[in-house]
Every structure is written in structure tokens, then in C-alpha cells.
Write a structure and sequence with these properties.
- The protein has 349 residues and is mainly beta.
- It folds into two domains: 11-217, AttH-like fold; 218-349.
- Helix content is 0%, strand content 57%.
- It contains no helices and 24 strands.
- The protein has strands at 12-13, 28-29, 34-35, 44-53, 57-65, 69-78, 85-93, 113-115, 126-132, 135-143, 149-157, 165-170, 176-193, 196-200, 206-215, 219-231, 234-242, 253-257, 260-264, 269-271, 281-284, 291-306, 311-326, 332-348.
- β6 (69-78) and β7 (85-93) form a beta hairpin.
- 41% of the residues are buried.
- It holds the Pfam family DUF2804.
- It comes from Streptomyces poriferorum.
- This is DUF2804 domain-containing protein.
């Protein structure tokens, strides 16, 4: 094993009855086992973020409840130079009508999530995350800035035995985060823009889930990187984090190779240029040499938000990972042009 962190193997409540962190919940698991029975208002944050990629396009759906407001977003990117980029975000003051379950939305045994009007107009957004026998159904509707209807209909498969990475990151008894990251999930479907269709199908369509539930400090900075695809003769999912976990005794770092998780307990060394996010990044394990990757971006989804309650600076770069990683059993995996992203975020919320 590459970590001394505690592995959780049985279902557990995230919180004690008074709303503080349950010490028994601190650790990591290969499947989502935590029930996020959060209590309190103002610092509680809940979200589901799905991103589905093909070799030419990606689409991302977000449903988030930040207590004092909710944000529901549809984002579409075409990679070609000068390609299509569309984003629609609906802001709901007070978060009215947005309720996220204690477990992964749309998973077996959990509650489906449906937000927004069935026929959204103007800046409104409809997002559905539903359980189906074959997997998780993702649907979304909105109008583009040119008032064309945009519709997303995707199915994310659940391969038997496919492992994910769930971690509790404890800043203290009253500030903590439960995150469940799922990579390299096969997906299929299509996106319609007006009368044109984008096919999200074939053996090279992959989904990533970022499921989050926690009680956050007012200000935080983080890195997050993920990628999915076939490389070196394997199906590989990369899941990396940085800065926000430092000093907590927990990391959100792991490799999913052919459906099997390798948990990495070492904090990663992230190197990038804040002045030029499109310059190459490096992500390495400084001691073990288990991760040695270069990330080369081709697009920066740069967001700046200042609303009084929220001060957000996000640079989410999409690109390719190259280098090598090593699994628990010592296998070296060559990583070549693995499609994914890496982000640099400052958040006051």
C-alpha cells in the first residue's frame, strides 16, 4: 500500500448528532460509504459535478448548493482552435428548489436530482441526475446566448467492481469535507444545439464525477486534476488534489487502473505558472516517485466572480497528461496524451 491513511470498509455517518465531524468517518474508501448527514447553515457546501469528454468535445454539468445560493451550470467546449464554447449558469438566491441528497445523487439507493424548470427560458437551467438500471442518466436543457436550445442526454455506465476514491478531509471538528471522485467511467449519448447534434459515443467517451459534501472555511485555495482514457495498454483514471488538504493527514490522490484504485497518501508537488496557465504544468510525488507527469493545456476556462458573498478565481485548464505512474503492485504505467484537466482555484464563499 502507498498510504497509511485509514481505509473505511463499512457505511458510516459523516457527522455526530451535534453536527461535528464523526472521528470514525475520517479516512478513505474504494466506494462511496459515507452518509453526509450535515447540520448547520452558512458554511455547508454540497455539489455534484459531472464532466464527460470525447476526443473533440466535452460537456460539464454542475448542481451546487452553497446554503445562501445555488449555482446550476451547463458548459460545452469544442477543442479545435476557435471552436465552440458555451456556458450557462443559473444563480438561485437562497438555493430555493435545489436539494442534494446525503449520498451520490442518482446512484442506486440514493435520490435523483432535478433542478430548474422543464422548459427553461432566458438564463435558467434544467439539470437532471437520475438512476437507471444501466447507470446514471445525465440530462440538461438551457438556451445558448444566441437563444438556440441546448439539450444534453448522456448515460454514464457503472462497470462491475469499478473503484472510486472517497475521502474525508478534516480541518477540524466543525470544518471538514467529504469528497467522492469517480474517474474513467464509460459514457454515451449526444448533445443537441439547435438542429445540430454532437455524438458522445464510442470507446473514447469518459465521465468523471466530483461529489462534494462538507462544512468549509470562508477562504480556501486548491488544485484539482483529473483525466480518463486508455494509455499504456490500460484504462487509466487520474485523480489529484493539492493545497487544500495540506496538514490534514488526508489526500485526495489516487490512480484507477483497469478499475482498481491505488490510493496515494503523499502530498503532490504541483508546479505551474499563475501568470500563464497555458504553460506546461508538472505534478509529481516528491518522495516516492509514484507520479511523474507533465500536463500540457490547450484551453483555459477562466472564471472571475465577485458578488459580495462570493469572490472566486478559477482557472480550469483542459489538456493532456504525459509521463508515468506506478500502481500498488509496482506496475509502471506509461501515460501518453491522456485527456483531462488541471485547475488553480481561489475561493472566498
Amino acid at each position: 500500500m502507498t498510504t497509511s491513511e485509514h481505509e473505511i470498509t463499512e457505511p458510516v455517518d459523516l457527522c455526530l448528532p451535534d453536527g461535528s465531524l464523526n472521528p470514525a468517518a475520517v479516512g478513505w474508501s474504494r466506494a462511496p460509504l459515507h452518509r453526509a448527514n450535515l447540520r448547520g447553515w452558512g458554511r455547508t457546501k454540497r455539489w455534484e459535478y459531472w464532466c464527460v469528454t470525447t476526443p473533440t468535445h466535452l460537456v460539464a454539468l454542475t448542481v451546487s448548493d452553497l446554503d445562501f445560493l445555488a449555482l446550476n451550470t451547463v458548459y460545452l467546449l469544442e477543442y479545435a482552435p476557435g471552436g465552440l464554447e458555451l456556458e450557462r449558469t443559473a444563480i438561485i438566491p437562497g438555493g430555493f428548489g435545489v436539494e442534494l441528497p446525503d449520498t451520490v445523487a442518482g446512484a442506486p439507493g440514493s435520490r435523483d436530482v432535478v433542478v430548474g424548470p422543464e422548459r427553461p427560458s432566458r438564463g435558467k437551467v434544467r439539470v437532471e441526475i437520475r438512476d437507471e438500471n444501466a447507470g446514471t442518466r445525465l440530462r440538461a436543457r438551457c438556451l445558448t446566448p444566441d437563444r438556440l436550445p441546448l439539450e444534453v442526454d448522456l448515460l454514464v455506465a457503472r462497470p462491475p467492481g469499478h473503484e472510486s476514491l472517497s475521502v474525508v478531509v478534516p480541518w477540524g471538528e466543525r470544518r471538514f469535507q467529504y469528497t467522492s471522485k469517480h474517474t474513467a467511467l464509460p459514457a454515451s449519448g449526444r448533445v443537441r444545439i439547435g438542429t445540430e447534434y454532437l455524438e458522445f459515443d464510442g470507446d473514447d467517451t469518459w465521465a468523471v464525477l466530483d461529489h462534494g459534501r462538507g462544512r468549509w472555511p470562508r477562504t480556501v485555495d486548491w488544485n484539482w486534476g483529473a483525466a480518463s482514457g486508455r494509455t499504456g495498454g490500460h484504462t487509466v483514471g487520474l485523480q489529484f488534489g493539492g493545497r487544500w488538504t495540506a496538514g490534514t493527514g488526508s489526500t485526495e490522490n489516487g490512480l484507477c487502473v483497469d478499475g482498481r484504485l491505488t490510493k496515494i497518501g503523499e502530498e503532490l508537488d504541483w508546479q505551474w505558472s499563475p501568470a500563464d496557465h497555458l504553460a506546461p504544468w508538472t505534478i509529481r510525488t516528491p518522495s516516492s516517485g509514484q507520479v511523474d507527469l507533465t500536463f500540457t493545456p490547450f484551453h483555459n476556462r477562466s472564471t472571475r466572480t465577485e458578488t459580495g458573498l462570493i469572490d472566486n478565481r478559477t482557472d480550469q485548464c483542459f489538456g493532456y497528461y504525459d509521463g508515468r505512474v506506478r500502481t500498488d503492485d509496482g506496475s509502471e504505467i506509461t501515460v501518453e496524451r491522456l485527456l483531462g484537466w488541471a485547475e488553480d482555484v481561489h475561493m472566498r464563499w
